[in-house]
Structure formats: structure tokens, C-alpha cells
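Two proteins follow. First one:
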Amino acid sequence: MITKLNNFTHKSFIGYTNPNDLLFRAKNILFGYNGKGKSSIAIGIKDEFLKYTTKKPENLRIFDRDYISNSLLLENSDGKIKGVEASFGKGGVDIEIKIKELEKLIIKEDEIGKLDTVITKLRKEIRTEIDKIHDRRKGEANIQRKSKDESVERVIELYKKDFQDAKKIEADDEKLIKINGDNAIEKQIEQNENLKPLNLLKIQSPLIEEVKVIFKEEFGEDISIPEFEVVQWIESGLKLHKEGDNCKFCDNKLDFLDVKSKIAEYKKNKRHKATDKLKQLREQLQSFLESLKIIEKESKTYSTNIGNEIEQNFSAISEMKSTIESLITSCQTKIDSIENQQDFGFELLAETSKVIEESISTISKTKNEQLSELRKKKNNLTTLVKGAIGLEILKSVTIKDKLKEVKDKEVDLKEKRENNKKKHREIQNLKQQKSLTKDFADFVSQILNDINMSLKVSLDTDNRNYIIKSSNENATLTIRDISEGEKNLLALLFFYYELFADNKQQNIKPVIELIIVDDPISSMDDSNKFYILELMKNLLELQNQQIFVMTHSWDDYCNLSYGKENNQTFTTLEIRKNNGVSTLTKLSSREKPYNYLFKEIYEFSRKSDEDLKTECQIYHYPNVMRRIFEEWYGFKIGRDLNFTSNLQKQIECHFGITSNNQKTKLGLLIKVCNILSHSINGSMNPYEIHQSAKYLMRLIEDKDKLHFDNMKPQ
């Protein structure tokens, strides 16, 4: 057991050794305001303990402000908490041994990954071999590879189907395997499809019937009607004029409406109309002839691609050109002397057109029949080539061997993965049997529920660590999402639970000899303080461990030390700091918290402004002042002191404060108590805190002198 610090130096402790009247005992309660050196003395106690060669870090437990980050938080996690684990009794140890044995039997992921990589590589090699056979056997034929997204098994099945389809055309495997693809038929099909169409410009039947009438009709000479071409010329020229213009050819006066009327009269003339129809027939005969000449030019190309048998059809078409030419001549003769009677070969025209149309039809039919046959051959050849490719793939020894190797390795891979899954399940079952982490999650969640905190602790998916959840919304939280008080409470529960070797918290782990708890109730609500104080009292009742509990709260110190002043097992000490140097002093717990705090503020108010430069706990006083102000006001006025916006007017009214100077000082006191007691920031002014302490003491002295005289140090 540690009885003293020996020549301890750390921060404000300088070469400090406990005097003989201030020795540590089995149970130690230390009081000291923040900044006095509580955390430093905790380090000194730990270091003194570890000076003994027989003592190890596992023999002590320390709870301090860094406990969460140093002991609980998982590395590389978003605020998850480490699981509290211990093997309770022989059953837990046996389970742990089984878990370790099973973990050794789990095949490493990198070994499984390597096997998976080998399988992938083999599959790629098989697919490469299949594609090589495909490309070589198809030649120039347009036969696509199987989809790259298909598995090799599926690809082989597709080629097997191709082989079965080919067998319907060629049953002999020996003949089939010799077939290779080419694009000769495809080229021939393409050439035939690209042959120019044989378009014949036909003569309109209604026009022929009209012209037949003209050839039968008699036309006398009509000198009053100009020639057809003259009428056309005049009509064209008239389009360049408008009413009122002079003639654009001779610049003489032009009777526009008269000329227009005469042209209309000329065009209604029978002879003029007949000439127009004859000219239309001549133009259509000429176009008919031109289309024959174009068709005639395709004779050689068609014969080359389709065959010589169609040459006779092209010859028949060529022979008809002279007939059409003679008919064009007959038509022109009639135009030139329409009044002369003559014959026109209408039957010859019909017969000639029929011969030409039949020849063109025969040529087109021959072309289409040949295309159909070529396409059929192409389809058959494609089927045979695909079948030959499939047959070679099915016969390939390389593909068979690699495929067998893939199957064997995949069976091996599946067995390894199933083995790992089985072992993981067995380990999971064992962990659930062990149920250590779940015990703690249930333990903490029950406590949080009992003290009305809307938090719970649940097992993470790994069943080894914890996540924090909101009990109201069941939302997952992190350490950063909860308040300082909630965080400290969780940390202390973790710390307390881990001390014990059983899940009922009855038997402390025998390896633990020293327990140090530094400020366990920091930033906690009043409802949580009571529970934590009870935990600390339980620790102080432990029989075989030396305990140190440190607090900055006088209330907590009084609660913990109550009834222990004359107990030889306990010692109660205060950590003080004077002129920047910390020491230990005797401390009694008999004085009530209010009395102690009143005297503390009284002594602070009596200090000079110069003393403030060395006052290390200046920022502790606003909270103490607030407590004194609240308690004194409560029993003086009979109501709670609520720091609301109208508080100052309320106090001014109760105590009859009327001067502006007193109102200003009261306002400063309220500001210091209300703001500085709840936050720490750069706006704190030591001088304002000191002035407010002076005013508070003066206010109590003025308004309640009897109380003031009884509370101040005698």
C-alpha cells in the first residue's frame, strides 16, 4: 500500500513528500478545486505505485478526463466504444480457448483471394482460346463472337447448340470439321443487291388514246391561227409585261389585254390543242427511248453478276430502240403537217412496250431468285461454319483441361469459404454463450433507463464492441453527439463494470490492487450525481484494494467522507496551492457546504487586486458565488433565485436598491453568476469576478448582518 509521495515533482508539485501526519491510508478522499493539482497527484500516486518492481500496470486502474479517448474509443471508428470483456470463471476461459482454436482454423482471406484470382485467370484463358478458334475458323465471314458478359460455361453451351444446328445440314463430323468460313457469298449478295434498278419510263395510256383521235381527225389550213411555236413564243413574251407597258421588244404601244385575249383564243383552237398533245407524246416517246438506253448500258454488269442467260433479254430490249425511234419520227411528221392524213403504229407501240416490260421483268425475277438462293446458301454456310467452330471447341483438349481445373479449384474455393462461414458461426455462437459484452450493454442500458436518460448501449454488428443509441428514436449516436455529462457517466460506468470479475459486480478482479478516480462527477446533472456517488461509496467499501477518490466539489466531498473522520481506514485531505506550489493539508468534513463556500468567497473578497495575479482558481469562484447567492436569497426572501431577464428588477424591489451605482454593481454580479458560472471563454475578467465577490458580501452584510456575522470566519 502507498503511504506517501516521495520527492514528487510534476507541474505545481515540487519535490513534495507527505509529512508523517498526512500519510495515505487504504481509502483516501481528496478535495481540491480545479487548478490546485488533483490530476498531478493522481499521476504521482500511479508513479509511486509502479516504483515497486512487483507492481504492473494491470494491477491498477485510473479514471480521469482522458479515460474515454485512451481506454474506450476504438481506433479508426466514428465514435464507437470498445467492448468491456473479461472471462468470468472457468467456463468463460474454456470458451475463450475454443474461440482461439477455431480462429486458427479460419483460412486467411489472402489465401482465398489468391485462389479466386487463379480461377479468374483460368477463365480468361479459356475464353481467349475459344475466341481464337472462333476467329480462325470464321475467316472473313461476318460471324460475331458470343457475348463477353457470358460465363465460359454458357459460351460453350451456345457453341454446342451451334454444332447441333449444323448437324441437321451436315451429319458427318469429319466433313463438318473441314468447313471454314469466307465472305465470297456475302460479297456476291452485296454485288447483286447493289445492281442499279432497271427503271422504264412508261407512256401514259390516256395520252395515247387522245392522240389516236388526233390521227383520225381532219385539220384544214387556218391562216388566222399562228403556228404552235409562235403562240408559245407570244405567250412567253406576254409574261414579261403587264397592262400599260410598251412592248419590250419593239418599244411600240402594246395592247396587253388584246394580246392576252387572242392567245386564249388561239389555245382553244382545235389545231393548237392537237399539236400540244402530239408534242407531249413525242416527249414521252423520247424519255421512253432514253430509259431503254440506260437499261442497255447495264447489260454487261447484270450478265457478269447474274449470268449470261439474261443477255438475250437485254438484246430484246436493244432491238426495240429502232422501233421507238421510228415512232418518234412519225409523231414529229404529224406535228409538222397536222393537216396531212397519215398512219401511226399504235399497235406496234403496244407490242414493243410489252416485249420490253417482259424482258425487264425476266431480268428482275432472275436476279431475285439468285439472291434468294445466295442468301439461303449464306445462312446454311453460316450455320455450318458456326457448327464447325463449336465442334472444334468441344473437341479442344486445352479447353477441357482448363475447364476441369476451374471446376476443381471452384470446389476447393467453395469448401474454404464454407469452412470459414462455419467457423465464424461457431465462434459467434461461443461469443454469445460467453455473453460478456451483452451483459455490459444490458447493465448500462438498465442504469440509464433507471435514471431517466434517453440513451442506451447496444452491441455493434461484431458483437464485441458497442454503439450508443437514442432510446427514444433508436438513432445511432457517437461520443461526439452526447453531452459532457452523459459522456462522463458512460465512461464511469465502463470503468466501474470492468473492475469486476463477475457480471453481478460482487467480486473485484484479484489482479487489481490500486484504484484512482479523479473527479468522477464532473459535468453531471444532479439526478446522475446521486447514482455516481453511490458507485464511489461502493468502491470505498472494497476490502482488498487501496482507493483514491478526488473531487473538486465540496458537496461531493462531504457526502463521500460523511461518518469517516474517526475511521482509521480513511484519510481526508485537501490539495491547496499557494504562490503556484501545491501541497496536501488536513481536512475535516464536519463543516456544511454552504458554510465552507461562504467563507471561501468571504476570504476571496478580502484579497487585494494585486493578489489576483497569483490567484489560480479565479474562474472557480463565479459558480461558488452563484450557489451562495441562490441559497441565501432563498431562505431570506422565501423563493428561488431564477436567473431570468427580469431578475435585477426583482432583486432591486426586494432589497430597495435605488442608486445607479448599486444597480450597476448588482448587474455585474448577476452577469458573473449567470454567464461565467456556465461557460469558460476569453471574455472572463478577473477584476469583475473580484468586484462581484466584494459586492455579494456587502449585500448580505447590509441586508442580513446577523447571518453575515455568523457565516464569516471567526
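Second one, unrelated to the first:
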Amino acid sequence: MSINPGPPDQRPHAPLVTETPNPGPPTARTRDTEDAKDAKDAALDAFRAPDPDGPLTTDQGVRVDDTDNSLTVGDRGPTLLEDFHVREKLTHFDHERIPERVVHARGAGAYGYFEPYASLAEFTCADFLQEAGTRTPVFVRFSTVQGPRGSADTVRDVRGFATKFYTRHGNYDLVGNNMPVFFIQDAAKFPDFVHAVKPEPPNEIPTGASAHDTFWDFCSLQPESTHMLMWVMSDRAIPRSLRMMQGFGVHTFRLVDRDGRGTFVKFHWRPLLGVCSQVWDEAQLTAGRDPDFHRRDLWDAIAAGDFPEYELGVQLVPEQDEFAFPFDLLDPTKLIPEELVPVHPVGRMVLDRNPQNFFAETEQVAFHTANVVPGIDFTNDPLLQGRNFSYLDTQLIRLGGPNFAQLPVNRPLADVRTNHRDGYGQQVVHPGTSYAPNSVGGGCPATMGGGRLAEGVFEHHQERVDGAAVRRRSPSFADHYSQAALFWRSMAGWEQQHITEAFAFELGKVGDREVRRRMVGNLAHVDPGLAADVALRIGEPEPGAPPEDRAVASGAGDAAGVAFSPALSLENLRGSGIRTRKVAVLAAPGVDGDQVRAAHERLGEEGATVETLAAHGGEVPARDGGGVPVDLPLPTTASVLHDAVVVPDGGEHTLPADPDAVRFLAEAMRHGKPVALLGSGVELSRAAGFGTPAGLAGVAVHGSGGRDDTAFWAEFARLIGHHRFPSR
């Protein structure tokens, strides 16, 4: 067995500190200083190509005289096969693409760090959770599930939230989603689910969407999907930003302390900016205006130093309480209501560095639920057990062989010593023997079993397992509706309306009437009113009363554990402040320049990004004779790319006559976004069909201008912080 010597220009491998003391607030980091580098950033330096300096060469280092013309017989003759440079150039181009992921193909990634608030040694021996303030490098990849790499960001879909921790004892991957449950209970159904949700085989339609027959046929025949469907039909499936959505580990995992004692755990990520979503019409318009909306938003925020931050929370359940709930902890279609087990914040993650090459890093990063470290272990969740096989199997074909862990973004910071050899993509020259035990090749490091384990050694958690080999679902997994009903009852009125409309939109696109009726029948178990409303909207008969079950008959108090859970509603998850919110100021000739400047200054002080929009670029003449700089021409942007709108005084003869301005404000009003109308700015509201909206939720009106009115701008900032006013 030999030690992986690392990249050729770094032999012997320089010692790297995986976890470093807290160097200060993230805003103090600068990409150009050595002090700013964490251990993973420093390790990647060995693989970063230098700026081009010198002549072009082939892959063999041979200098090239001409890269624009093929070697031919005469000026117009055939190309010669001996032109090794052009053949190499074309061959490399032909093979630049790798197969995209079967699911989660479209993604965006970022580097950062995680640091715990306090030691978790009471529950786990995981090294990166032992000491408060110890920083561990991370790479996070966000993604959609259904669509290919070329689909839009804002489609209705689950979002992946996968985090790779580069710990001192190896890589740990927390591979989750922005929803805490899943469609199926057993991994044996995963190929069926994915085949159903993907575009239909005859025509490869639809792309990046689930509104089609095969998906709803599958779900209508799989009642276990009902709870997840409630989440996917909610606004959780159309997040405002990757920086403003929660993440969940989905499964119940196990923390293990140094004495081998286990504690069940559910992982939660909470964005410090709050949890915010789009509305359906807005999401569709955004896909047309900017299909890269989420990617761009994440990249721009990090580039501007507005580093996304998430708090890691855990729900801890002692092993002796495994059966203390009216649902099964191993069922991935169930969550633990926070009213039964609170979420304890244990640390924070800051994303402070964009990748330098999308393909090399975001595309080639490989996550795997079985990538665990000492102190974190699995449970017998049948979906998790299957994922522990499937992820590795997928990466073998997608990344071309067994050596994908040697790619820079996947390479651990911990030392690697294996007997693995050869295969596609092998980057290490291994001397000596490759078997154990051996006595002729210089010896081989022994495994670390036999007695008390040394620090950093993984040992599987021990538990008694016995029983007959059967293909049978546990009876404790049989309740498919109680938590779906809990989710429905916990929603605000506007959220219930959006869920109803989403079901109607999706099922309205299903051509098979039997599928529609069957799905409406399933919804009757969740809430008869929901089922009746959806049936009416899609032209199906109202379902009869379902057979009595716990979800409907008892308010789910006995089956879900609680009757209501406020933590499930977006109404209760808004953040505080307006940092990174985008505010549009609509300007036209004659605009009050003081008000435009006040919007930039007052809202900018609160952390918002304020942009002045006008019919054209350059400047617009202000009322005082000066000019107001224009950040973006109106025809190049849209209200769906902004969070709030300010219409200052002046321009009352121009703005209402500009169809782009009228449409901009009308869409913002229709989508419930905060709007400020100052002075004659109400004329644009009238032109957009909203009259003088005094008293309308989320609209701040200031008849006298308000350029120096501190209270007005403070109130408008409060409205922006509320994010959305669906009642409008």
C-alpha cells in the first residue's frame, strides 16, 4: 500500500491544516491575499492553470506554429492525417463533455466554510464538530432535479442542497434538498419515480416540469408521495433565491460519540436572509427573462461580498426514544414536527468564494450519501440504504471510472492511502505492492481495528439486527396522509390558495382523466375542501367522502403528532432586514433627482441593491436641471428580476405613456411586491390599472414627495423586509 503523493508539483505533499481558527468576519477576506486562503483553497492552487505566458503548445509540450490552418497538400488540397496538432485539438474538443447527472443536472456551486457555535462532543466524535469556531472548508452545490443542464432555474421543482465538508478525517457529504421529505419510501422505487417525472419517452416533453401524465400517474398510484406533493405544489418549489431557501438532510441519520453511543439526528439548514419564494406567474416570467436567475443571483452576491450564510440546526432523538412517535423515524416521507423535537442551532456556514471553472468544479464535484466520517453514521432508512449504493454507481459512469475522487474539487485534504490501482483517470504513479497483507513490498499500513479505535478511525455503529429476509414494507410506514394534512393545515390562507392553484395547473395538463380523478381522490384524504376545489378547477366530479382515516377524522393529532406546525409556513420564516434585496427606481425626464438619490442612499444603507431604470441608458434630465444616471434601460430588464419598486415624483407625462414602465409596475403589483409611490408617481399606478392604491397592502404612498422623510423610507424598508403581500 502506498501513500497518495498528491499532484506532481507538490511532492512530497505539503501538510495542510484542514480546520483553522476563526480568522475574523467573512467581510475581512480578500481573494488576493495568502491569509485569505483556507486549506481547500490552498490545495487547489496546485491544479490551477497559470495565466497564459508564452507560446501555444500541444498536450505533449510541443510548441505550435499555427493553430488557425490545417496542414494540407497545397493551398486547396486535402488535409493530411499527420497534422497531429489539429487532430489533438479536434479530439479534445469532441470529448469535452461528460454525461450530465441523471437528476440534479442543472446546478450552481460555491466554496465557503462551516464553524460550530459550541462543541458537540456530547453527541458525536466527528472532528469538525468538536470545538467552537473551528473552520472547516466546504463546497456546496445547489440544483434542480427534473430538468437537464439547459433548463431554466425557476421551474417548479425540488432543489438539491448538497454540502461537502473537507474535514481533517476525510470528506463528509450532507446530500439534501430544500424539502425535508421525499416522494418514495424505498430506493427500489427510485428508478420508477425518476422515469415518471422525466420527460415522456415519445416526445421528450416537458423539460424541467412535472405537469404531465406519467408523473401524476405514478403519484396517484403511490399514496406515499402525497406528503411530498404538498411541498412541491407549495411556493417552496419556486424559491426567490438559492440564498433564501432552507435545506434538509431528509433522512434520519445517527450521531455517534467516542463511546459508541448513538443519537438519531435530522439536519436542517436555515438561511439567515429568511425563506422567500416567487409566485407561479413570476417564476414563469423569470424563466423567460433570465433562465440563469438563481445562478446569477448566487454568483453576483458572492462577487459583491454579500456572502450567503446558513445556520445548521439539528433535531436530536435519543436512541431509546426511537419508537416514541406516532410515525416511523426511518420513513423518509415523514418529518419530525418541531413542536415535538425543537431544532437546536449548532453552527453556521458562509459561502464566500465562487468557483474559477464551472466544469472543473461545479460539474465534476461528486457527492455521495455514504461519504461519512467518524461520528456520523446511517440508519436503516430503506431509501438512504439504496442511495448509499446508487450515488457511487452513478459517478463511475458519469465521471469515467473509479478515480473521480482524485479530481481537485473531490480530493480530500486528509491523507489518502489505498490499494486501489489503475483505471480511467489514474493520476498517481504507485510504486510497490498493492495487496494486504504483504511482506515483500515494504510493508503495508495495518487497518486500525482491534480494541479502542485511534482518533479519526471509522467504525460502523453496532446494533442488533435479526429477522427473516423479506420483501415487505414495515407496517409503521403505512400512514401516507397525516403529515400531508398537517402541512395543509399549517399553511397561511394565501399559501393554501397557491397550493390549490398549483395542483389545478399541473393536473389540468394531464390528459388521462382517470389519473386526474385518482389524484383528486388522494387529495380528499388530505382535505376534502382542497380536493373539491381542485376537482372544480380541472372539470372533474367532486370526490365522495374518503374512507375514514386518521388524517381527516382526527385532525392528525394522533398520526402526525401535532395538529398544527407554524414552522412549516413561509409566513413565519421571513428574515429580518433587506440586505441584498433588489429595488428598482423608475425614472423619466423631469424626475425628482433628490428622491432618486434618497432611495439609493436610504435603502442602500440598509443593504439593498438599488438600480435606476429608464427608457434608455445614460442619464435622464432631472427636475432641478441635473442628470440622473441610469443603471439599466427598462427594455433590458423586468420587475420579476427585482424585489421592490419605487416610482418617484416627476415624469408623470412620460412614465404612464411608456408600455415598459406600465408593464413593470403592473407585474410588481400583481406579484405582491412592495411598491413606493411618491408624489405624481401615483399616475403610473393609475395607468397600470390600480388607481390610487392608498391603503393597499405593501404599497407606501407619499403625496408630498418624501425625499427627506426618514419615517417614510424606514416604513418602506420594513415593507421590503416583509418580502411579499399575497393578499393584494
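SUMMARY FIELD: DSSP finds 18 helices and 20 strands in the chain. The radius of gyration is 28 Å.
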